[in-house]
Design goal:
The complex is a heterodimer of chains A (about 475) and B (about 475). With about 475 residues, chain A is of the alpha/beta class. Helices cover about 40% and strands about 15% of the residues of chain A. Chain A has an eleven-stranded mixed β-sheet with strand order 1-3-2-4-6-5-10-11-9-7-8, with helices on both faces. The radius of gyration of chain A is 21 Å and the shape is globular. Chain B has about 475 residues and is an alpha+beta fold. Chain B folds into three domains: about 280 residues, no CATH class; about 110 residues, no CATH class; about 60 residues, Arc Repressor Mutant, subunit A, CATH 1.10.10.410. Helices cover about 40% and strands about 20% of the residues of chain B. In chain B, helix 5 runs antiparallel to helix 6, helix 7 crosses helix 9 and helix 14 packs across helix 15. The N and C termini of chain B lie far apart (about 70 Å). The interface between A and B is large, with 44 and 28 residues.
Chain lengths: ~475, ~475
């Protein structure tokens, strides 16, 4: 049978009914990876053997009637999640052979609920990038157009789904790293509220912004995955102890009477006409479904990118200090003893973008510059968050484009970091505000998918999922498949 | 000493806490274990691991803060102190920078002149320790991270001390308090109580502080004193020769009694402190503070005063007994059973502490419980045994753990208070020493001692010396 258009709930039913088996699903995914990944490069590690063994075990459990919400479903996770016994290289040379002795909480939760790990997904080194071109394992290509980028940093997580290699994936989003690749690859991606999902065991880029989230082929699958990974974790002090609702329970509730805000600052001159047109069409769909559309303002939007590149890099400069060649990862002996070893190791182990951000962040925290850069950026961050909270007093959710353009070409922006940074202009403010958002397909620019962003109030993921589901039910964009074959 | 100059000293003390587990993970902080055996992803600084604050550490910090008259911050934050070193697995130390948990404290010290002086304490903050490096082995330098992430309090004083002696008085006072609170084992040699000293001098009368040097590696009170005195001399010599003191960190060498420059101000790190985004701000409410305050033990200074004022002990006794919490508790338990504080004090300070010193033990090792000792003192009080015999009985109880009554019974040490029996012995002795007795009768009082001694000897110490004396007087006047 063909699984490519089936939701996880349908697959679950088919498994329970004996119409398929986890081994069959896993084999299908592995075959798809074998057939397509030479072109896509979404996977950096494929665990065929352990996946098939786990699938066989899942089939025994299904036969015995012991079934969790994800039992037997093949998934894959970004290579930023620690997976005990399976290499976790985080897109970096410095960790190229690193095998963690423990599991990230979010991954452990998926496994406890029966998901089958197919492998680890390519990404920008240490999640720093918007095109997945900053990976030590080479760039990922967009399944819709192999000359184009899949977005980043969770490029592998989005491309694997678009290529039909897995039924769901996990990514992380620090400034748009789930939503922008989801948009570029025509899949659904959720960036939950900061604190909603545990960061324990997820290699840190910028700790106050990083958040784990699911990517999936449909809103419903994304909701299912989010429910599986969300919740308080005593091992992460920043995870929040508030109940996790059943995201599927009210997902079909529609948008009638919902008040949707359009932030004026997001519909700007630089917006690609195709994107603008698709988003405007989506607004009309919502109006037609009974939502009330109003214009709102997020006045500090212009400062978001600058603010982000100070805070994120400052935190990164400290988070990445542990890669010093002393305990794990690559070590290169240099001249001059200890400091020589540090310099050589880090010079050889990190790529250019990571070095650029470490230098930026080190500078922003330096004595004499701290107040002007880091502290000022924190103040701006407070204002940006206040913008959102104020807007949410008037509306239930916000609707914006995910990115100013559809997927760009490989190499198009690699020589111009600033242009690259601007591709996250609509996603970054959400991370700074610490609230939740998702990306879902809303149109095509020729052969390339366009994404729609719905931004929700803190811990109100249920409402944006409900609104996304209403749109999805009304349109066919999510059913389009990349022309890979 | 160069009397032209005034010495200014500020101290930074690192107090290692006696919590069961580390500050940001659940690893045991047992020492002396196999290297790197007391570790987990968090204290190894593995990618993706996150710190979780140990509540006990906060409790100990509040305790120490209250005992040293600090204000406890309702809201404090942890910060990262960034620097590279192989014993620092994350490349930063989690500490507190702005908004520490305790601020504006002070302690009173006794000055040489006998007065009291208040030493300000700027702040106390919580932080994690680093690991340990072993250099020079066949396999190069080795890293042991068992100590990484163990909890420390850093206690930073104001530059209020004006001599090495004042510095030592302050340190001893602080040391006593943290031991009393039970938050630190107080072992200087093993680094449980570490001190860095900031020392500067200035011409007397000058208001601005001189340039300071920071002294490190001071692991006994004696070395601290030596190091400070050496540093004062060094700086005074420099200034006398028209030179300048440079701001630097200096390492003290106990073997030579001298220090050498470790790094200058220019080489000092820029630690790039910033709030640790992995930890949420620490909120301590009034109720928590009050709960900790209610659990505070009576502190040594208050205890000393009470011993003098309420128990009527001499200052010296009060100081010795109150110095260590366990000794004070032993003493108080004994007084509760026996009364007579001065007698109790004599026995605790005399016999108990002496015997412990000889056996190299602490009060916790004392085989004589306050109950056993009170039993012994009771037998002295009711004249069953003399003070002298009591010391023999004490040794036997120490050895066997038996009660005083048992030992007295078994060894037949009961004091003879039967007048007839003592008189019979005395008569026997007088008969054998008629000449001496005649001299005594003739007024040579010194000989009383001889006769008492003989009676005691013949009675194997059991005769009541008071009664012997009385009987001798009776015989003289007969």
């Amino acid at each position: 049978m063909s699984f490519s258009q089936m939701s996880i709930r349908q697959l679950q039913q088919a498994l329970r009914d004996g119409k398929t088996s986890s081994v069959e699903l896993t084999r299908a995914c592995l075959a798809r990876i074998a057939a397509t990944d030479e072109r896509i490069n979404a996977f950096v590690t494929v665990c065929a053997e352990t996946a098939l063994a786990a699938a066989a075990e899942a089939d025994r459990k299904i036969a015995a009637g012991a079934v969790g919400p994800l039992t037997g479903i093949p998934i894959a996770v970004k290579d930023i999640f620690n997976t005990a016994g399976v290499r976790t290289s985080c897109g970096s040379r410095i960790l190229e052979n690193y095998i963690a002795p423990y599991d990230a909480t979010a991954f452990a939760k998926l496994q406890e609920q029966g998901a089958i790990l197919l492998g680890k997904l390519n990404m920008d080194e240490f999640a720093m990038g918007s095109s997945n071109e900053n990976s030590a394992q080479g760039p990922v290509r967009n399944p819709w157009d192999l000359e184009r980028v899949p977005g980043g940093s969770s490029g592998g997580s989005a491309a694997a789904l678009a290529a039909g290699q897995a039924f769901a994936t996990l990514g992380t989003d620090t400034g748009g790293s789930i939503r922008q690749p989801a948009s570029f690859c025509g899949v659904v991606g959720v960036k939950p509220t900061y604190g909603r999902v545990s960061r324990y065991g997820v290699i840190a880029y910028a700790s106050s912004l990083d958040q784990v989230g699911p990517l999936a082929q449909s809103v419903e699958d994304a909701a299912l995955l989010l429910g599986a990974v969300a919740g308080y974790d005593p091992l992460d002090s920043t995870s929040v102890d508030c109940p996790v609702p059943d995201y599927l329970a009210g997902i079909d509730g529609g948008v009638k009477g919902m008040k949707i805000g359009l932030p004026r600052e997001y519909f700007i001159a630089g917006l690609d006409p195709a994107v603008k047109q698709a988003v405007e069409a989506a607004i009309e769909v919502y109006r037609g479904l009974g939502a009330e559309i109003v214009e709102v303002s997020l006045p500090h939007t212009d400062y978001a990118v600058a603010c982000y590149y100070l805070i994120a890099t400052a935190e990164a400069s400290s988070n990445l200090a542990r890669y010093d060649g002393v305990r794990y990862g690559v070590r290169q002996q240099g001249e001059g003893g200890l400091s020589g070893m540090y310099e050589k190791t880090r010079a050889a182990g990190f790529g250019d973008e990571v070095k650029r951000r470490i230098m930026l962040g080190t500078y922003a925290l330096s004595s004499g510059y701290y107040d002007a850069y880091y502290l000022k950026a924190q103040k701006v961050r407070t204002l940006i968050r206040a913008d959102f909270l104020k807007a949410f007093k008037e509306v239930d959710l916000l609707l914006t484009p995910v990115a100013p353009t559809a997927a760009f070409k490989l190499g198009e922006k690699t020589d111009d970091p600033l242009q690259m940074y601007l591709s996250d202009i609509f996603t970054i403010p959400v991370n700074l505000a610490g609230t939740c958002a998702l990306s879902l397909p809303c149109g095509m620019d020729g052969q390339l998918p366009i994404g729609l962003q719905l931004i929700g109030q803190p811990f109100d993921e249920a409402r944006i999922l409900q609104a996304a589901k209403a749109y999805e039910a009304e349109t066919d964009w999510h059913k389009q498949r990349a022309p890979l074959d | 000493m160069h009397s032209r100059y005034e010495v200014v000293i500020g101290l930074e003390v690192h107090v290692q806490l006696t919590t069961k587990t580390k500050i940001f993970c659940g690893c045991s902080k047992d020492f002396g274990q196999e290297p790197n055996s007391q570790t987990c992803p968090v204290c190894l600084g593995l990618p993706g691991a996150l710190p979780v604050l140990n509540k006990q550490v906060v409790e100990y910090a509040i305790k120490t803060g209250l005992a040293t008259n600090h204000q406890i911050a309702p809201h404090s934050i942890f910060a990262r102190k960034n620097y590279f070193y192989p014993d620092l697995p994350k490349g930063y130390q989690i500490s507190q920078f702005e908004l520490p948990i305790c601020e504006h404290g002070w302690l009173n010290i006794e000055t040489e002149a006998g007065g009291k002086k208040r030493i300000g304490i700027t702040r106390i903050h919580m932080e994690e320790d680093a690991g340990k490096l072993t250099h020079g082995g066949a396999s190069g330098s080795l890293v042991d991270l068992n100590r990484a992430c163990t909890p420390l309090l850093e206690v930073v004083s104001e530059p209020d001390m004006r001599s090495a002696d004042e510095a030592i008085a302050y340190l001893k006072q602080l040391h006593q308090i943290v031991m009393y609170l039970g938050v630190c084992d107080g072992n200087l040699e093993e680094g449980s109580f570490r001190c860095d000293a900031n020392v500067s001098i200035r011409p007397k009368g000058q208001k601005e502080l001189g340039t300071r040097a920071e002294l490190k590696n001071l692991n006994s009170f004696r070395f601290i004193k030596q190091a400070i005195e050496y540093e004062v001399e060094r700086q005074a010599d420099l200034l006398d020769e028209g030179g300048k003191v440079v701001q630097e960190t200096r390492l003290f060498d106990a073997d030579t009694g001298m220090s050498r420059s470790m790094r200058s101000k220019e080489e000092a790190h820029d630690y790039r402190y910033f709030p640790d985004p992995d930890l949420v701000p620490l909120v301590v409410d009034e109720a928590w503070i009050e709960r900790v305050r209610a659990e505070l033990p009576e502190l040594p200074e208050v205890k000393r005063q009470r011993y003098v004022e309420q128990l009527g002990l001499p200052e010296y006794d009060a100081g010795v007994l109150a110095a260590e919490r366990a000794v004070a508790e032993y003493f108080e338990a004994l007084v509760a059973l026996h009364g007579q504080p001065k007698i109790c004090s004599n026995w605790v300070m005399g016999e108990v502490l002496r015997a412990l010193k000889e056996s190299d033990g602490t009060i916790a090792d004392c085989p004589l419980s306050p109950e056993l000792l009170a039993g012994l003192l009771g037998r002295i009080a009711d004249n069953t045994i003399s003070n002298k015999i009591a010391k023999t009985v004490f040794e036997e109880i120490w050895r066997s753990g038996k009660s005083a009554d048992q030992v007295i019974e078994e060894q037949g040490l009961k004091q003879v208070t039967d007048t007839g029996a003592i008189e019979a012995i005395l008569d026997e002795i007088i008969a054998a020493n008629l000449d001496q007795f005649a001299e005594l009768k003739g007024g040579k009082d010194k000989l009383t001692g001889f006769f008492v001694g003989q009676v005691m000897k013949l009675s194997k110490g059991k005769a009541n010396p008071g009664m012997v004396n009385q009987l001798i007087q009776k015989k003289i006047s007969e």
